Amino acid sequence: MSAQGGLYNSSGEPIEYDQLSEIARTLTPWGPDGGGIHITGPIGLTYRAFHTNKHSRLESQPLIRNGGLALTWDGRLDNREDLIPLLRQIIEGDDSDASIVLAGFQQCGLDFLERIIGDWALALYDFSTRNVVLARDFAGNRPLYYAVAKDLVIWSSQLETFLELTDAQCHLSDEYILDFLVAHPPAERTPYDRVYAVPPGGAVVFKSGGMITKRAAWRPDLMAEIIYRCDEDYQDHFRQLFRNSVRCRLRAEGEVWSELSGGLDSSSIVCMADEILREESAQAASLVTVSYLLSEDLDEDSNYIFQVEHKRGRIGHHLLDKSHRAFFPEPSAPTLTRPLGVPGRLTALAHYMESRAARVLLSGVGGDNVMWSSLRRIPHLADLLSRGRIGELHRQLEKFSLATGRTYWDLLWNEGLKPALSNEPLSVNRSRPAWLLNGRSPRGTWGELSMSENLATSILPSRRISLLFILDSIRFCALHHFRTCGMIEVSYPYLDRRLVQFMLAVPFDQKLRLGGTRWVHRGGMRGILPESIVNRTTKVDAAPYVYRALNREWDEIRDLFEGSLRVMDRGYVNQRSLFESIARARDGRDVDLFYITRALGVEVWLREIAKLRTSVPVMSLDQLTTPSQILATD
């Protein structure tokens, strides 16, 4: 996961080298494998490399072409083999991912954005039009942030750039923090007012004269339908797409690591990777698992972990909870640039991987939402109502009422009528704790997937709701946990664009039916996973980890409350009520641990940010313009 940044003066005035070199300095810790700087008149680009595969070692960035384009690229191009034959005459013998992407823009212009598949973020400058384009893949896996003054645009893949070169820490975003306390903030927001993230699946175009527009890099096709004759055909198609998703993420040198919790998502990644490494040639030397254990004693979750390890004939790394603090990162860890719920575990894993020269981590995040693990939402009941299949709706209501314990009328109203009659995204509501003074119940915004157009009522309710769940995963990934805590290139096979499009297009009963959740997923992995995991219905429970951490770190937590909490000073919480809630959680009583970890995460982050001091900022955020004032949409 390389680092990139730049400056653009829309008035045409030349960029000063000293300013760009300061941006490069902030990126250096995140790019240990070299890099470069390029300045031509009003544009300055800088890049720092973090190599993970043999093709990335061929790159020399910023990449400048005679066709009048300059590019910095942080990414993994998954459809490179499809693109190379189409662009061979332009590539000029350089088949690095960055070179292929730049050749694509030379041939197709910005329409090429839709053809880039993988985890990526890029900055592109067109010397003829003097336009700068910042863009990210649909899942927002690689970060890219920007801020805009009257004439000057600054961008970077690291929030550290803005903290070191601007007075960002003096302009915290209450909107972002309040969203973080109750859910996942919108992926286009950052914790700092007037510092924004390039939207996942979108592009921001900066033009000479100061005009800024936004456009989609890719949109999922919500009208597409995939209809097969039998379950086995869906399962074969899923297995092919999932195999390809994992294979693409094995294009890495040395060991690739993968989280293993014993759940269906992580176990599927590990066992599919083993099959690929056994049957095909792959760049990765091997797959190594890492699991978070409460102790070395056997419990339900560790039993499933050991079953996968037994199947693959290899014991993975076990990160015991007592080996690190959960709520407080170690002093040697990077400064937290954003709030995180339990940064200690992430920091510990980042340090552990770095000590073993491991750079790539696969994660099962997104699997629950893409493959559908929820029994609480049954959106295909609304599909039946929308299509006028009243008799089938009645039969399904009776069956699901018996299976879930919910009344017939509750299901009809909340799962049938409400989703069918509204084309608005639906909220996932949680009961708000009493100590939260300014909490909100954020709703998903389709703009985060470049879905700004109105969702027509002809789109099936199950697809709108499925997209909301996928959006929630993208919001979570946009927090960039590992990028905040250390140098790990993390990738999410379940958020592969082709797999997501497939899961949106299949009939909903391939996800959920009375026989269970994740129907196509379980069927597609049968014979690859241990049968006990294919049939597993329980979830990995994070609550014991939090309970134990609260007790281990109680003295430090109590010390926080001896003075005024920063979350109280900013008007977010009632300090006394929050302390009482944490004390109840410490005793194992019924408390929503999600809210507690978020509140502690914000407090720890606010204390870290308060330690930062910017001597002579390159720009003050007081001078910056808000996107609502400057953005138009192509």
Q: What is the spatial order of strands in the main beta sheet?
A: 4-5-6-7-11-12-20
Q: Round the Cα radius of gyration to an integer and report it.
A: 24 Å
Strand content: 15-25%
Per CATH, the superfamily of the largest domain is Aminohydrolase, N-terminal nucleophile (Ntn) domain
Q: Tally the helices: what do you get?
A: 24
Instruction: Assign a percent range to the helix content.
Output: 25-40%
Mean pLDDT: 88
- Please write the CATH class name of the largest domain: Alpha Beta
By secondary-structure content and strand pairing, the structural class works out as: alpha+beta
Tell me about the biggest sheet? 7 strands, mixed
Low-confidence stretches: 441-456, 626-634
The domain tally reads 4
End-to-end Cα distance, whole Å, is: 30 Å
Q: Might you state the CATH topology name of the largest domain?
A: Glutamine Phosphoribosylpyrophosphate, subunit 1, domain 1
Number of strands: 20
How would you sum up the global shape? globular
Supply the CATH architecture of the largest domain: 4-Layer Sandwich
Note down, in words, how this protein is organized.
- This protein is α+β, with helices and mostly antiparallel strands.
- It folds into four domains: 3-218, Aminohydrolase, N-terminal nucleophile (Ntn) domain (Glutamine Phosphoribosylpyrophosphate, subunit 1, domain 1, 4-Layer Sandwich), CATH 3.60.20.10; 231-370 and 476-534, Rossmann fold; 378-429 and 446-470, no CATH class; 543-610, no CATH class.
- The protein has 24 helices and 20 strands.
- Strands 4-5-6-7-11-12-20 form a seven-stranded mixed beta sheet. A six-stranded antiparallel beta sheet has the order 2-3-1-9-8-10, covered by helices on one side.
- Strand 6 and strand 7 (131-136) form a beta hairpin.
- It is globular and about 70 Å long.
- It starts with a strand and ends with a strand.
- Mean pLDDT is 88; it is low at 441-456 and 626-634.
